[in-house]
Input
Amino acid sequence: DNPSLKLAILDREYPYSNPATDEFVRKLLEGAGMTFRTYRNTVLVLAADSGALVTLRQQARRLAALKSIAADRQLCQRLSESDRERLEGWRRDAEGGVEGAAHGAYRYLAKLDETGSIKWWDMGISVAKESLSQRVRSFLQAEGLLATDLKPEILKQALGAEQHRTLKELYETFARYPNFAIVPDREVVRRAAARGVREGTIGLQVGDTVYLREHLESIPDDALVLQAEEAQKRLPSPGLEPVDDAKGPRPEPEPAPMLEPTQTSRASEILIRAAVPWSKMSDFQRGVIMALVQAGAEVTLEVTIRARARSESGIDASVLEMKVDETLRQIGADILERRVEGNA
Output
């Protein structure tokens, strides 16, 4: 489970339109081992057409038979030169047949949509010579599902109500939430940030320096991407005297003294109660829970979540019953309170 883009190609036992396939695909898209998947906008699944799999198997058997004949040295020695050339030509044709049949069979692509449902696309029959992963990438770009170039306004949307996030956190936001287009790598976000700072759509802070409507050559991962209004507030006032670099570098502040642990600074037990934002739950798991487990501690984790959802247009009762309540039942949640206002 990481922000990198991943393509899962299903075995023939999970063809498209098989009810068991949908169940298996949901596990891939929503889970990562024994935990919920954090980066749910990074996993794509490719399934084959059950009818086309028959052709693929036939082509694969033919290729296997031709390879077996070509590997039989005694038999090949008895063949004439023209027969050996004919056999090699058949083998090359069979390899092309397998590749073509695979492209014809694996045409159904799945990923989570913004509602958390599985969405399938039929990519059709491929005519270009490209690998399955290249074909998927071309399809995603053609459908506008893969963004290799982001407008700075999209970064503002990813910031949401927050005034700032690091560039790394912004990139991970696109990897987490399926309502955004897929961003293949961090450089896409970096280029969008540079353009946004240049145009004044967003600001940037690197260390103590704030940039707005400026050209930047490079942006580090820990740079803060700011809403333009926040960047304007952080810029130095016009009346302040600029720093004269000719006077030489400023003296480095003395570092704060580091507290070094002693041999006796070992805790036998720790109890933590914390209000953790839901978007940071995976960070809490990695930075707190896993750190304690790796330190040899037995961790008992009890999570109490209080969620309130409101909608002016109303929340459909089927969403509550078929999705919310069913998920709570499946994960074995102990419902401490459930209050519904309205007709549901």
Observations:
- The first strand starts at residue 6 and ends at 9.
- The mean pLDDT is 78.
- The longest helix spans residues 81-105.
- The two ends are 36 Å apart (CA to CA).
